[in-house]
User: Which sequence fits this backbone?
């Protein structure tokens, strides 16, 4: 072994410099993890508002600060306030359940008695019910406590959004120059980030809002308890692939059957299958053509991770975070593993779209 090999001084300085950057970056990341939702939120809002910003500034010749202020105000009214209202309703309705978990137990007992007498099914046995109750009781405080940090994240997100809107174009050109990828992959990563943001930050909430509104109408018409609360829960359940809104309206229908209200129970089942379920098929196809459709597995794990990390807003940011991770893996494999082979990591359902840039 040759021990006289000399490492160039410039390489040593480079390694030490990179190590210092990584160490400092890790320290900053660990101290600012709680604001990760703010960064994701600012990015998502910028993606949604950038075209309108360009039109107001470059076509209508508005001053940048006026255009940015107007767009931020509109986004706050249209996006933030509805989420704040939903969070308030959930917190107000769920708090009594936290203090009295027997509410869940009594409701489940009614459903279990009906299933056992009518079909001989023992789905909600005492051990299973205890597990479900414990899981819900443990999850709800985590979600509510995480949501308590939402105000800080919203303030930081809008601070970052102001910076992005006032520097629209400059940030994008800087990214295109400095992303450590080949030119073709730079365009692809920017385009796929845009698609991921649109699919998660626009597509999922729109579907949830549509199905939640239809659920509220159905629950109100067919005498379900607390239609507004269960409509919101139904909209949230629409984020869950495979099961979806059935996780909400099936227990409600069973509760009606258990109370002897067969006519309303049948009506709730029909409404859930035909109207709520049918709207998923119709509007999801429309949204998939317009903005893409996130893969179900990303949504499943994204919702689980997002609720723990971001609280209520994790329903959106969780899938977005996984989509961005898989996108970076895809680009890495394409750049460094085998450049001659197109490596496709599951990110979206359906065919790939044409490449583009943020400045389209």
Assistant:
């Amino acid at each position: 072994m040759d021990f006289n090999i000399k490492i160039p001084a410039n390489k040593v300085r480079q390694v030490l410099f990179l190590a210092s950057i990584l160490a400092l970056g890790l320290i900053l990341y660990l101290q600012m993890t709680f604001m990760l939702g703010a960064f994701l939120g600012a990015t998502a809002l910028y993606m949604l508002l950038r075209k309108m910003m360009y039109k107001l500034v470059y076509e209508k010749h508005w001053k940048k600060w006026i255009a940015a202020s107007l767009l931020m105000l509109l986004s706050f009214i249209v996006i933030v306030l509805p989420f704040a209202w939903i969070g308030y309703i959930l917190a107000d309705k769920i708090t009594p359940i936290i203090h009295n978990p027997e509410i869940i137990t009594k409701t489940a007992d009614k459903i279990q008695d009906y299933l056992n007498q009518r079909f001989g099914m023992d789905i909600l046995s005492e051990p299973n019910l205890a597990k479900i109750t414990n899981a819900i009781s443990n999850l709800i405080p985590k979600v509510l406590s995480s949501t308590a940090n939402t105000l800080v994240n919203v303030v930081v997100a809008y601070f970052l959004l102001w910076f992005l809107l006032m520097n629209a174009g400059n940030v994008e050109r800087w990214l295109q120059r400095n992303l450590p990828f080949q030119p073709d992959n730079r365009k692809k990563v920017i385009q796929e980030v845009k698609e991921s943001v649109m699919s998660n930050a626009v597509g999922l909430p729109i579907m949830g809002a549509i199905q939640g509104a239809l659920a509220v109408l159905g629950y109100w018409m067919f005498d379900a308890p607390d239609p507004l609360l269960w409509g919101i829960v139904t909209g949230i359940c629409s984020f869950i692939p495979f099961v979806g809104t059935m996780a909400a309206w099936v227990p409600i229908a069973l509760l009606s059957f258990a109370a002897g209200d067969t006519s309303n129970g049948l009506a709730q089942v029909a409404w859930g299958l035909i109207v709520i379920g049918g709207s998923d098929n119709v509007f999801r196809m429309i949204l998939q053509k317009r903005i893409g459709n996130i893969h179900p597995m990303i949504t499943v794990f994204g919702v689980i991770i997002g609720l723990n990390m971001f609280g209520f807003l994790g329903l959106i940011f969780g899938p977005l975070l996984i989509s961005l991770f898989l996108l970076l893996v895809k680009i890495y494999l394409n750049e460094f593993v085998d450049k001659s082979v197109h490596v496709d990591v599951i990110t979206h359902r359906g065919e790939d779209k044409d490449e583009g840039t943020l400045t389209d």
